[in-house]
Each structure stands twice: as structure tokens, then as C-alpha cells.
Model the fold of this input.
Amino acid sequence: MDTKQLLEWSDKHLMTFAKRYPVALVRGEGVRVWDTDGKEYLDFTGGIAVTALGHSHPRVVGTMREQATALLHVSNYFHIPQQIHLAKLLCDHSFADRVFFSNSGAEANETAIKLCRKWAKEHGGSDRGDIISMRGGFHGRTLATVTATAQEKYHHGYEPLPGGFKYVPFNDLKALERAIDSRTAGVLVEPIQGEGGVNIPDDGYLPGLRKLCDEAGIALILDEIQTGMGRTGRLWCHEHAGIAPDIMTLAKALANGVPIGATLATEEVARVFTPGSHGTTFGGNPLATAVGLTVLGTLLEERLPERAARLGRFLLERLEALRAGQPEMIKAVRGRGLLVGVDLTPPVGDVVAACRERGLLVLTAGENTLRMAPPLIVTEADAARAVDIVGEALGALRR
Done:
């Protein structure tokens, strides 16, 4: 297919919801992808932190082939062995006792919001329903989750938005304490804000959140859709802080690109979901959960969270060295594991385009932050090459 023709059809027939790059990707292997013209790219987007095992991982491909020949979908009126095994594995390696599977991160957060409100009304009072979320956060694109996303740019045009949401600044415990009242059901927060700019809170922030929620008798919901599955150097990002939530949401890397979402909860909270109180048609189907089981099993067996921690340190060191050589172009570098942000002076869109021209795919975040979220199988050589390309791109823009 001619690339120009393909992009013309895209412009004509697809709804416009994103500023797409002028690239059509058709093949991937490991940390690399190729477009319709045969050009090779080093993929440091990871499908927005999705392809933790890289592209065309043999175990993932094998699972998909095997499951496709056996059973793709049945209703959740029936027991699904793959779903049960994945739920058990998630519970065995987390704080949780029970899991609800859905199709996306937004659905996982919708489930968390519903679960939190139902639990609060049954245990705290009928007037408890407010969810407090953090400015700069991102929780999805449904009406409820876009409202929970405390960024007005995502709200414009969709008013009236659902009620029952309050916003406070990220990394500000005093502001949260002032916001909690008799109507509060829970707090929804990312351990690290990804879309908001790879914003990492102070060490005492998550323990402080846990303490405030315990004192108020409300639920702590951690959105680990981007930070979970080993991305930050631990299986779950909140493990860095030594705390556990009441509810946690997952998606993205859980099935390495096969659509899936998961809402994990303690027994105390989860038991308020009873037959008919929530549901899904496709969520937790045999294909998605079979792949999820393979992905999570591979992450654990190959100790990929530890690898992410090690490679993340290497990547940050190289980026800091680049910043030292181009301080007028790079304002700050930060990250945890393989979720890294680089605050830039030149427009981040220009840098992303210049990197793409040189064979590196990267992301944007926040106001002017370049974001890297490569597969957890990335090598030091890949990371070094990526930093070199960023340096080349910045050098070209400086001239």
C-alpha cells in the first residue's frame, strides 16, 4: 500500500481525535518497529508504556496463536480458566484479594470509582460519594474519568460533566487534608503522574496519603495504569513507598498490547460488588487473560522490574550527561525505572519530530516534557543510542 494513499484515507475516513505522526507502522520486533516505507525506528514510546515485553515477543505470539485456535470469547456468565489464573497471580503478587477485568484503563478507573462510592455509602454514610483527584493527573477519556482528570483542557466541550469530583494540587498533603470532608468517598491518584509530565512526588507523599485516608475512613485508589507492571523498577510503583492502596487499577502493559484493564481491591472493599452491580461483555475474555497471564509470568520469571530499575539508572545517567553538555536546551531530567521525563527549552513537538527523522520514537507529556517509556527488555546499547539521537536532534534545532 502506498503510504501517501494510506494517510489520505486516514484523513478522510477516521475521526480526528489525535495529531497523528506522518508514519504508518506495520511491523515490530523487540525494541524496533518498521513503517510502510521500510524505515526502522527505535521505539521508546512502548505504545505509551504498553509493550513491556517489546514487539512480537515469542511467548506472547505463541499464547495468542494457541488461544485463538481454542477459544476467543465466552460470556462472563461462565467461569473462564485463564481469567481465574490471572486473577490469582495478580492477587498472589499484590495487596489485593479480588480482581475485576475490563477492556481498558479508563474502564478500570470507572470500575474503581463505582466500587469506591458503593463501598463508602455502605460503610461511611449515604452522603459519601466525592472522589478527590490531583491536578495534572490523567485517568481516562470517559465522562467520569475525564472529569477525574483534573486538567481543564480535556474537559472543554463535554460539559456538563458528572458531579462528585474535587481537585487538589499533586504532592500537597495539606491541601488534601483540607479537602477531605464528610462527603468524601476516596482519593484517586497516580503514584507518578505520567501524562502530566512524569511528575514524581516527595518520598513522604504516598505514606501521607495513606495516613490521611485511614484517619478519614476513606479509600485510597492508586492508578497504576502507566506505572505498574514493573515500569518503575518495582512490580507496583507504590512498593517504593512501602504502602498499599485499597483499590488499584491496571491496563497498558498487562497484556502487552491486547486490550485489557483490571481493578484490584481488598476483600473488604470488593465484597460490595454483588451480582448485577457491575458487569462487562468483553472484559477478561480468554484471549486477553491468557496473554496477561503470559506477560505477568514473564515479568516475574525474568525479573524485568529489576532490569527496568538498572536500565533506568543507566538512561538517567546518560541524559544527565547530555543535559550537562546542553544546559540551554535541557532544563531537567527525572524518572524512576523506565519512565523518564526530560524538560526542554525548545518546543517538545519539534524535538519529537527531529528524533523521529533520525529513527527514534519518543512521547510528549505535560507542558513541554519529552517522555521515554521503552520496553523493559531494552538494552544499554539501545538506551545509549536513544540519548545520542536526542542530542543530535537538539543540536540540529539549536543551529
